[in-house]
From TrEMBL:
<protein>
    <recommendedName>
        <fullName>Ribosome hibernation promoting factor</fullName>
    </recommendedName>
</protein>
<comment type="subunit">
    <text>Associates exclusively with 100S ribosomes, which are dimers of 70S ribosomes.</text>
</comment>
<keyword id="KW-0810">Translation regulation</keyword>
<dbReference type="InterPro" id="IPR034694">
    <property type="entry name" value="HPF_long/plastid"/>
</dbReference>
<dbReference type="InterPro" id="IPR050574">
    <property type="entry name" value="HPF/YfiA_ribosome-assoc"/>
</dbReference>
<comment type="similarity">
    <text>Belongs to the HPF/YfiA ribosome-associated protein family. Long HPF subfamily.</text>
</comment>
<keyword id="KW-0963">Cytoplasm</keyword>
<dbReference type="Pfam" id="PF16321">
    <property type="entry name" value="Ribosom_S30AE_C"/>
</dbReference>
<keyword id="KW-0175">Coiled coil</keyword>
<dbReference type="InterPro" id="IPR036567">
    <property type="entry name" value="RHF-like"/>
</dbReference>
<feature type="domain" description="Sigma 54 modulation/S30EA ribosomal protein C-terminal">
    <location>
        <begin position="130"/>
        <end position="183"/>
    </location>
</feature>
<dbReference type="InterPro" id="IPR038416">
    <property type="entry name" value="Ribosom_S30AE_C_sf"/>
</dbReference>
<dbReference type="GO" id="GO:0022627">
    <property type="term" value="C:cytosolic small ribosomal subunit"/>
</dbReference>
<comment type="function">
    <text>Required for dimerization of active 70S ribosomes into 100S ribosomes in stationary phase; 100S ribosomes are translationally inactive and sometimes present during exponential growth.</text>
</comment>
<dbReference type="GO" id="GO:0043024">
    <property type="term" value="F:ribosomal small subunit binding"/>
</dbReference>
<feature type="coiled-coil region">
    <location>
        <begin position="73"/>
        <end position="100"/>
    </location>
</feature>
<dbReference type="GO" id="GO:0045900">
    <property type="term" value="P:negative regulation of translational elongation"/>
</dbReference>
Length: 191
């Protein structure tokens, strides 16, 4: 298992890194039992320490949690408890959905853009109608089933997930609706 443990404008000691590796290793071995990697970032927000952790499972799922506390170890423990709770809740569903999967999930590359709106409301100039690109980055698009995409959406607490449908290879989207239900967009079925 690979760990990436870092601090945002704070120093992370060797003892904390050892503690994080031991505790996360125990949680992952208990519930996931597959090779994974974990990214843990510590930061300070006013008087509180913040711990953000993301665990990437080989099944393509990501578990993310955040913990706040006055002390750095307590912040990690709060984050670890949330990860433990997420993985415990989804253990049965993960096992049932991935029982037939023999290979890890494949990822395709894609471009992701963040667009800034313009404050100009003049419609006479077509150049002002184009938003300004303020960030361009690479994103990974998993090749998974619809059920796995819904689990990924719920597990990571995301609002939307773009994925390649394993059933037919087309790009699909699942998203959380305002009424709390899950929406699924499959352009292939729109014919």
């Amino acid at each position: 298992m690979r760990y990436q443990i870092s601090g945002r404008q704070i120093d992370i000691g060797e003892a904390l890194q050892t503690h994080v590796k031991a505790e996360l290793g125990e949680v992952i071995e208990k519930y996931a039992q597959r090779p994974t990697d974990a990214v843990v970032v510590f930061s300070k927000s006013a008087h509180e320490h913040v711990c953000e952790a993301t665990i990437h499972l080989s099944t393509g799922l990501n578990a993310a949690a955040k913990g706040h506390a006055p002390e750095i170890y307590a912040a990690f423990e709060a984050c670890r408890e949330r990860l433990d709770k997420q993985l415990r809740r989804y253990k049965r569903r993960l096992r049932d959905h991935h029982r037939d999967r023999t290979a890890p999930v494949e990822f395709d590359g894609g471009s992701s853009y963040i667009l800034a709106p313009t404050d100009d409301h003049e419609e006479s100039d077509t150049a002002t109608l184009q938003p300004i690109v303020i960030a361009e980055m690479e994103t990974k698009i998993p090749s998974i089933t619809v059920g796995e995409a819904v689990m990924q959406l719920e597990l990571a607490g995301q609002k939307m997930l773009v994925f390649r449908n394993e059933g037919h290879g087309g790009v699909n989207v699942v998203y959380r609706r305002e009424d709390g239900n899950i929406g699924w967009i499959d352009p292939r079925n729109s014919k």
